[in-house]
Design a protein that fits this description.
BirA Bifunctional Protein, domain 2, eight-stranded mixed beta sheet, elongated
Length: 440
Amino acid sequence: MAETQPVRGFRDLTAPESTRTAALEAAARETLSLYGFSEIRLPTLELAELFVKSTGETSDIVEKEMFRFEDQGGRALALRPEGTPGVVRAYLDKSLRQQGGPVKLYYVGSMFRAERPQKGRYREFEQIGVETLGNPHPAADVEAILALNALFAALGLEGRVRLRVNNLGCDTEASCRPAFRDALRAYLHKHLDTLCDSCKRRVDRNPLRVLDCKGDGPRLSAEAPRFASCAACKAHVDQVSALLTDNGLTHAYPDPTLVRGLDYYTRTVFEFAGTGLGSQDAVAGGGRYDGLVKLMGGPDTPAVGWALGVERLLLAVEASDPSFKKLEAHRGTGRDVFVAVQGTEAPTLAKATRLMETMRRFSIRAGGGLFASSLKAQMREAGREEARWCVIIGDAEAAKLPPTCQLKDMTTGAQSEVLIDAVKDAIATSLSKKEPTHGL
């Protein structure tokens, strides 16, 4: 017998999880389009060197988590572990800079990391992310954060997420991150014997990475040297904080211990944490990465972006609203109408089939077609599909001139006889759907 379970850390998505995932994607697309972001679709496979170069040789992604392999031509390939490097590669490959003005993109798709599976964390997981390339002003950072906050509001998470912000400075001023790195390295050498094996390797190559370690980071951060940025970096992040406050995002707070897990971040870094997720409560994060495009062979290009984990965000939504009512409003998971028949005559079945298709032309989600089942079974299915209305067509009613049907409000239980030709308009009016979206 063939193995029927998916590979550990991978999973099948069926309803209701697939429906909720689609609803979250729909809410994200709707929100991000309001902020002027357009979608980019990235390849699942990239050259492994893309992620080594961009995320850093000492990152957990490169050291432990990346699925990489050699293809038939001897090339080192990797399943994408994150989206930003692919977006920057596409930005350069497609010469998007030549369009003029900032380039604002978002992506939705699966990422792959060989980490230990646990609740809300899988080896194949979905990310939604945004990237703005070409805008150096703090307003770009703020817009990215506000777009993410607006998505949380659309999902009913207002007041249930908190924003942390930090300043990671730059490498261009010796008094900025280079000075901090030296001080941190000296501090970590004093604690070298207490570090995990991964952090011991990072002390000299990338000491900031130690602060991001889930084991050593929290223990060492309290007494570690505090970062003091150059004047330009401080002014940038101070303006980000001021603009966030001006736009009503008053729950943001500075956190000097926040270090994102990737090498390319500069200046502004931020993270949103949700309730009901335990100690690993981060649902989204990002920051500015002004040097990445140049590192990958392009011109000096300021950039900022974020990514969120869909599975983690769904857990936060569930903790806030176990019924998922606000989330599912973005997808409309229930049927608008279910068409049932009470009879077997050909005209009855024809009218029922035609009515369902007419509904769908007007973007009314219509179910039905269970004409071999009893009326009781059909009504039970209408309830299971959470139909708002149920139309019941019987042989006698279909034979009338003009033909009629029973229209049942599934919320109140009220039922009345209406003309079949009028039922579509009645339901469309109640749903405010009055124009057809496609022809027959």
